[in-house]
Design brief:
By secondary structure, the protein is an all-alpha fold. The protein has a domain of 35 residues. It has two helices and no strands. Helix 1 packs across helix 2. The longest helix is centred in the C-terminal third of the chain and has 46 residues.
Length: 81
């Protein structure tokens, strides 16, 4: 018979990063007797890592947009003549 596993374990086993090893969040070693806590900890760590990556990419996009706006504002009077 198939073994029943909990939702947290299934979510912890899923690869949200398409199998890229470099994108995996660091894992805290599991304590004996706490499999649910380990699965929750892994899921929390993966969510924190995802949030950090997205924050970094959004920060970069924001800076690029601000620099391009300033550059276009500088070039606008030049092209207007």
């Amino acid at each position: 018979m198939a073994e029943r596993i909990g939702l947290c374990e299934r979510l912890a086993r899923r690869s949200w990063r398409c199998g890229k090893e470099k994108d995996k969040a660091p894992r805290k070693p599991a304590r004996a007797g706490e499999p649910e806590a380990a699965a929750l900890w892994d899921r929390l760590q993966s969510q924190i890592y995802w949030y950090d990556r997205k924050a970094k990419s959004n920060r970069t996009a924001y800076k690029i947009s601000k620099i391009s706006i300033v550059a276009l504002a500088i070039l606008l009077p030049v092209f207007a003549e």
